Amino acid sequence: MLARAPSGGLVVGAIASVQFGSALAATLFAQVGADGAVLLRLLSASIVLVALWRPRLRLRTRRELLLAGVFGVVLAGMNLSFYNAIHRIPLGIAVAIEFVGPLAVAVGGSRRRIDFLWVALAAVGILALTHGATHGLNGLGVAFALIAGSFWAAYILLNARVGRQFEGGTGLALSMCVASAVALPAGLVEGGAHLLEPRSLALGAAVGMLSSAIPYSFELEALRRIAVSVFGVLMSLEPAMAAFAGLLVLGQGLSGRALGGIALVVAASVGASRQTREAPVAI
């Protein structure tokens, strides 16, 4: 079914899913902390993906297992740093700062001048989203967002390789198990017994589906068909979607400047999506 879906639609669907999942996860922080929420998210997603794809370790080469393992470490690092960021600064601002990672991928992988135009528009939009709201921001939260951006860039590059090396979502299922193991110590320390409370388990399962199982599966399929650089620019929708999710779920209001930034980011994404058919991923 995913194979027949438009690549651009998969990316946009993944963006909406992950950002509303992140907003929902923020409601868990008071109970289990940021690291505890990450652990619940990754564990629930791992259970679903393993049950769905049933990966078999003995059928994989050492090189494939290493790739899945590295991807899992990146997934854990990206989630832990990002959740610690949105625990300290607003969701829309955190994603805007985090976007330096995908933006770097888009610039580094660009082969056409038109791609730089979309990147420039997205950059102006991100500046508009953050301008005037950064005063007084928690410095540690900003640092976590920047670290998450670095992991996000690595995620984009590795996700493309995992999609080519593994059939379906088997590679993603293996990587998610590794990510859960990496996040386990920090999650247990911060979440403690609250991780087993019914509300925590229910919200954690919902966050796992919205923020991991659904978007990662969508992105994995999309990256089989479009260039990494174009994917990076399409992800410029993330700050806009995060601001929207923050408004609806967390009550974080939007200024006129932020709305203007969203318009620029959307324009960049539309322009980039028109190029997707011309830039397939090499297989």
What's the arrangement of secondary structure elements?
Elements: H1 7-26, H2 29-53, H3 62-86, H4 91-98, H5 100-109, H6 113-130, H7 139-165, H8 170-191, H9 198-222, H10 228-234, H11 237-250, H12 256-273
Helix pairs in contact: 1-9, 1-11, 2-3, 2-8, 2-9, 3-7, 3-8, 4-6, 4-7, 4-11, 5-7, 5-10, 6-12, 10-12
Give the ordered list of helices and strands. HHHHHHHHHHHH
What's the Cα radius of gyration? 18 Å
Low-confidence stretches: 276-283
The tally of structural domains comes to 1
Q: Given the C-alpha coordinates, what overall shape results?
A: globular
Q: What is the overall number of helices?
A: 12
Largest sheet descriptor: none
How far apart, in Å, are the first and last alpha carbons? 20 Å
Count of distinct strands: 0
Strand content: under 5%
Can you tell me about this structure?
This protein is mainly alpha-helical and 283 residues long. The protein has one domain (7-278). Helix content is 77%, strand content 0%. Helix 4 packs antiparallel against helix 6 (113-130). The chain is globular. Mean pLDDT is 83; it is low at 276-283.
